[in-house]
Design goal:
By secondary structure, the protein is an alpha/beta fold. It has 16 helices and 13 strands. Bound molecules: uridine-diphosphate-N-acetylglucosamine. This is UDP-N-acetylglucosamine 2-epimerase (Non-hydrolysing).
């Protein structure tokens, strides 16, 4: 069988890792196409190296741009690539502009397309990711849902017959990487005099938090006021918008660091007092590592993290500080994101 994966942004490289490994084990031909949405080596190359993903076979080099220009440039190039390869399955991951472009290209060429991480919904129509998810789910032939909640969303939209619940592939990766990093402690953190449970890990990058100057300033101010040092792994989008809005990244307790490779992030989170973020992936990773999370958003797609008590949705200001500094939640052995073998079930679905 010939599988073709289209990826372009950091979280998609993480999701690709277990699929690439499972496809190789089963001796399937696997073509990897990188759109170039994320071109910074710290958001891209380091993930391929650290997670053992084969280098992309095709690189479209699309880069940044408005949503229309970026998505359009991907579509134009993907048509040629898909025509040439004629894969049995085109796999698209998550909710980025790369996901939507690849799903549209494949469906219009009548090539079977599978959406990995189907059915997630924030119900916030201001988010570009929400449109990417909904449009991709309705275009795709096979909807690989990470949870029952996601499958229920798809059923409510009339898509039950194309849906399979496979579990969450990011859980596959996280369990592997957690075993690999053991109890190592990142050098940057010790060089700053930080000790286990004596700091927070933060990331902020979403359009709704970075594009508005007032909101971005309020978020940075709150992060700087948390009672312990806050290690802010700064996404290029955050750095660029902070510069545009003259918002100070270096204030109060904030320690700014460039983005790090996945194993370094996992070991930083494992020893953190808490996580403060607007990332989808990081909320879930914090839950899986049983580190309390404060999410700077009004809604989440990963609702189980909230209902189980390990994640809180807050506005910047007082609410953020209270949430971050709250006592550790009650322990739970719930595992709504699967058993770490989601990629096996994805390949089973392709082979069925
Ligand atoms: C994208 C996804 C988002 C995902 C995130 C993970 C969409 C609509 N959004 O957001 O769902 O959570 O990736 O990181 O697809 N930039 C660089 N170097 C890079 C990449 C981006 O400097 O390698 C800067 C550019 O100024 C660019 C901005 O970041 O304009 C935004 O990049 P873009 O790829 O449009 O979206 P993200 O914010 O990264």
């Amino acid at each position: 069988m010939k599988i073709l994966s289209v990826v372009g942004a950091r979280p998609q490289f993480v999701k690709l890792a277990p699929i690439a490994s499972e496809a190789a084990q089963r001796n399937h031909e696997h073509v990897i196409v990188h759109t170039g949405q994320h071109y910074d080596p710290r958001l891209s190359d380091v993930f391929f190296t650290e997670l053992g993903i084969p280098a992309p076979d095709v690189h479209l080099g699309v880069g940044s741009g408005s949503h229309g220009k970026q998505t359009g440039a991907m579509l134009a190039s993907l048509d040629d690539v898909l025509e040439e390869h004629q894969p049995d399955w085109t796999v698209v991951y998550g909710d980025t502009n790369s996901t939507l472009a690849a799903a549209l290209s494949a469906v219009k060429l009548h090539l079977p397309v599978a959406h990995l991480e189907a059915g997630l919904r924030s119900f916030n129509r201001r988010m570009p990711e929400e449109h990417n998810r909904i449009l991709t789910d309705h275009a795709a032939d096979l909807l690989l849902a990470p949870t029952q909640v996601a499958a229920d969303h798809l059923a409510a939209e009339g898509l039950a017959d194309r849906t399979r619940v496979v579990g969450d592939v990011m859980t596959d990766v996280l369990l592997d990487v957690r075993a690999r990093v053991g109890d190592s402690f990142p050098e940057f953190l010790s060089s700053q005099g930080l000790a286990r449970f004596g700091y927070y890990v933060a990331t902020i990058h979403r359009a709704e938090n970075t594009d508005n100057a007032e909101r971005l300033r309020a978020i940075l101010k709150s992060l700087g006021q948390v009672n312990l040092p806050v290690v802010l792994y700064a996404h290029p989008r955050l750095v660029a918008r902070a510069r545009d809005h003259q918002a100070d990244l270096n204030q109060g307790n904030l320690l700014v660091h460039p983005p790090v490779a996945y194993p370094d992030l996992v070991s930083a989170v494992l020893s953190a007092r808490g996580v403060i973020s607007d990332s989808g992936g990081l909320q879930k990773e914090a839950f899986l590592l049983r580190v309390p999370c404060t999410t700077v958003r009004t809604e989440t797609e990963w609702v189980e993290t909230v209902s189980l008590g390990w994640n809180e949705l807050v506005e910047p200001g007082e609410a953020l500080l209270i949430s971050a500094q709250r006592p550790r939640p009650a322990d739970t052995d719930a595992s709504p994101y699967g058993d770490g073998n989601a990629a096996g079930r994805v390949l089973d679905a392709f082979e069925a």
